Amino acid sequence: MSIQQSDVLYTAVATAENGRDGRVATDDGKLDVVVNPPKEMGGSGAGTNPEQLFAAGFSACFQGALGVVARQEKADVSGSTVTAEVGIGRNDDGFGIIVKISAVIPNVDAATARELVEKAHQVCPYSKATRGNITVELAV
């Protein structure tokens, strides 16, 4: 289900110069970073790269979704962390990405942690946006 423009609560705006070997900045000046391809892809690795930025956004969003689910389930996720690993590689269409989401939730048992992560994956906007488009692996 998509949202309508009238339902948008916030819009982030970022502009890139020179693609993967340049600069990305937000319109409010809060983010202004040099981007370079990683050494593994023939770049200098001097700056950040789109995969790192995507991993940062996905992990933060997923952690937020985990908090929402935990409140609904009355589960303690204090001290939890979510790590997103974003890989890029060649596929039939050129390049594609793959994501592994790993959550550490110290205050619940393994079965509860797995259930919370699966529910968070259903409500996280990044998960929804990528569902059916890329492989996303969940790990607890």
TrEMBL record:
| Listed SUPFAM superfamilies | OsmC-like
Q: Which InterPro entries match?
A: KH_dom-like_a/b (IPR015946), OHR (IPR019953), OsmC/Ohr_fam (IPR003718), OsmC/Ohrsf (IPR036102)
Domain of life, source organism? Bacteria
Spans traversing the lipid bilayer: none
State the Gene Ontology BP annotations.
response to oxidative stress
For this protein, the record's Pfam families field holds:
OsmC
Q: Which family does it belong to?
A: Belongs to the OsmC/Ohr family.
Q: What is this protein called?
A: Peroxiredoxin, Ohr subfamily
